[in-house]
Hints:
Helices cover 24% and strands 30% of the residues. The protein is α+β, with helices and mostly antiparallel strands. It has one domain (16-102): Gcn5-related N-acetyltransferase (GNAT) (Aminopeptidase). The protein has a 5-stranded mixed sheet with strand order 1-2-3-4-5. It starts with 18 loop residues before the first strand and ends in a 9-residue tail after the last helix. Residues 1-9 have low confidence and may be disordered.
Amino acid sequence: MSEHPPAAVPASPSPADVRHDPQRHCFELRVEGRLCRADYRMVGRAMVVHHTEVPPALEGRGLASVLVRAVFDHAGAAGLTVTPLCSYVRAWARRHPEVTGLLS
């Protein structure tokens, strides 16, 4: 069996390009060799999202939004709620009323 290099992230990544690492409690997206992430901790059935980070060289491309969408997509599919401690996540949720039912 041959090994293949990781697929390149498209110019406009989607939540499907985000990797969830439940052991490290984070969602990650690598773009141009740089790591973007959203960190959370579990409190009961709530994902408490306390930090998002996009390297300065990648800011303004909507990557934090892609990460946060992946968090909410995961929470909805897993029957979890999201507690947005991170100010970016709170602001994102206000702009996306479709996720209101997932907020805790």
